[in-house]
UniProtKB/TrEMBL annotation:
<keyword id="KW-0472">Membrane</keyword>
<keyword id="KW-0812">Transmembrane</keyword>
<dbReference type="InterPro" id="IPR057169">
    <property type="entry name" value="DUF7847"/>
</dbReference>
<keyword id="KW-1133">Transmembrane helix</keyword>
<dbReference type="Pfam" id="PF25231">
    <property type="entry name" value="DUF7847"/>
</dbReference>
<feature type="transmembrane region" description="Helical">
    <location>
        <begin position="162"/>
        <end position="192"/>
    </location>
</feature>
<feature type="transmembrane region" description="Helical">
    <location>
        <begin position="59"/>
        <end position="85"/>
    </location>
</feature>
<feature type="domain" description="DUF7847">
    <location>
        <begin position="42"/>
        <end position="328"/>
    </location>
</feature>
<feature type="transmembrane region" description="Helical">
    <location>
        <begin position="310"/>
        <end position="337"/>
    </location>
</feature>
<feature type="transmembrane region" description="Helical">
    <location>
        <begin position="108"/>
        <end position="141"/>
    </location>
</feature>
<feature type="transmembrane region" description="Helical">
    <location>
        <begin position="198"/>
        <end position="221"/>
    </location>
</feature>
<feature type="transmembrane region" description="Helical">
    <location>
        <begin position="249"/>
        <end position="271"/>
    </location>
</feature>
<protein>
    <recommendedName>
        <fullName>DUF7847 domain-containing protein</fullName>
    </recommendedName>
</protein>
Amino acid sequence: MSNTAGWGPSGPYGGSPGGWGWAPPPPPPKPGVIPLAPLGVESILGGAFATMRRYAAPLFGLAALAYAVLGALVAGAAVIAYAAVRDRLEALIDHHRDVHWADVQPLVFAFLAVWVFAMLALMVASALVQASCVATVHDAVLGRRATFRSVWRRAWPRTPSVIGVALLQGLVAVVPMLLVAAVFVSLTLLALSSWSALPAGIAFLLLLGAAPVAVWLYTLFSFAPAAAVLEAAAPVTALRRSARLVRGAWWRVFGITLLASLMAAAMSYMVRLPLMFFTPTMQPYDTSSGQPESARAVFEQMLPDLGVSLAISAAGTLLVQLFAAVFVPLITSLLYIDQRIRREGLADTLLRAASAQQ
């Protein structure tokens, strides 16, 4: 019996007709934007761009709606705050006199109230956009059709859980920073009182060490939003789930997420740089008609150029924000699916789900 039996065209490994070559295994099934197999960096990036291209309407439409509502709410809050402190603000601008805390206090409180409201509204909008990205990735991987309404119906009920994840992520990352900041202040005061550089040096090293801890924790829990949406997990459960999936692959998850963030930053630069050439330069106050009577007169003369400048800046910021808000969560969601394919055999489940819908 020949030693080469089983390696020819009729052997279990196949081969080229009439030859001794070994045929490569068939490619993994690809019902959607990614092959249902462990993914490389190029597959993850390609899947994210393919999702943005094929599902642009639900992705960018929902993100644009979320940020438009956010802007309208914040603008409304700012108008209400301005109406409440308008008299005091005009008095400070138009009258030259000594400023006391009693004059500034209402303005500070109004600004803080608008800022807190804006941060809360931004958290809700960001969580909704992130949940919609995860829901869209699920359809994109299976090759399903996704509409604005279908993505909304899956993303909105899971938005509170994603908000909880974001709050816990912030708390987990901030607590070490606060502890280090407290130690930093204590050691700095000790250094000033003892005229010794050693406590200040230790405080500086601790401050440097806090940033890597925060990055490590952020990466460890980066899959929590995807788990909150796709597995209907509560915030704490989603964080634990993320930690289990990232463990052993931290550097890979960190590197690909960092690459996505750098690509988003490069996109921001490429969009903002051309806009700088179209933004009008605000001209100084024209003193030919005499010195301005108040700061309001200077502002009114600069308002036309200022309005155009703000409009161009807002348009560029919106484009950049939409891309970053969608692209980075898509990468993270695909990484989550990749880790489940590698560790839990999710590819078979996805293949069955894709086949069942045909």
